[in-house]
From TrEMBL:
This is Olfactory receptor. Belongs to the G-protein coupled receptor 1 family. The keyword tRNA-binding does not apply. It comes from Chlorocebus sabaeus. Coiled coil: none annotated. One of its GO terms (molecular function) is G protein-coupled receptor activity. The chain crosses the membrane at residues 39-64, 114-133, 153-181, 210-239, 251-274, 286-305.
Amino acid sequence: MKTLCSFLQISRNMHQGNQSTITEFILLGLSNQAEHQNLLFVLFLGMYLVTVVGNGLIILAISLDTYLHAPMYLFLANLSFADISSISNSVPKMLVNIQTNSQSISYESCITQIYFSIVFVITDNLLLGTMAYDRFVAICHPLNYITLMRPRFCILLTVISWLLSNIIALTHTLLLIQLLFCDHNTLPHFFCDLAPLLKLSCSDTMINELVLFIVGLSVIIFPFALIFFSYVGIIRAVLRISSTQGKWKAFSTCGSHLTVVLLFYGTIVGVYFFPSSTHPEDTDKIGAVLFTVVTPMMNPFIYSLRNKDMKGALRKLINRKLSSL
């Protein structure tokens, strides 16, 4: 984190020379009402702790239970890590600002926050697509599953997800630090987000917006298409199963993943495809809260409640910890 901040400071100084620019941004948060701040602090602190503990337990259970050393749970562990990292990128700073009555964030910290926000959201998206493909192979080609989903191949898919998300985030960051921010430094948000920050720049942001549109659309469409066609194949395969019990067992293996997919993409459609005409800034905040806080918090509950193997592993882990006390 500090290394990235230092790199951003050097790059900015080289690009801007002696031009006068702002050195910090003001985050207005979710509400400017003083009476709301304590409630927001308690609410978001609670959601943050639930997210970290819930996803942390999933990672711990998967790492300790050899029965869960399978492709689906490798992807799930990475998804949980991305969720912990995503919420840790934004909420702690928000909580500190509420407690200290300070709304400022330095330029370098703001850009760093944007970088990691992009990384974790894109990684989530790519991992959901990878998990859909894993379920497709498991249900439609069960006899070839071990061959098709070899450990080395699964690790490669995971590494590609993280590598690609970092490349995309670095691209946006390098374009962003070329921009000047002259007069306005107030962000109507609770953390630094790319789109609101572009609106504050006094430079031409056409290239940034074009890259944001093209890359953003591609990152959404390709994983979503993989998920869609995977589930089309899964549904067709399940409908050919004669017994009701067999159909239920097949659907139950991917039910938790499908729930997370619906929550993730439902947020995108509900917030960004049907924006509020009267409160566009509030709509952006709602979308950010759903992406960075609510979805990461819900994932552990969805996977633990709908997956009997995960429930069993978590139960064993908790019992082991309780017995050691």
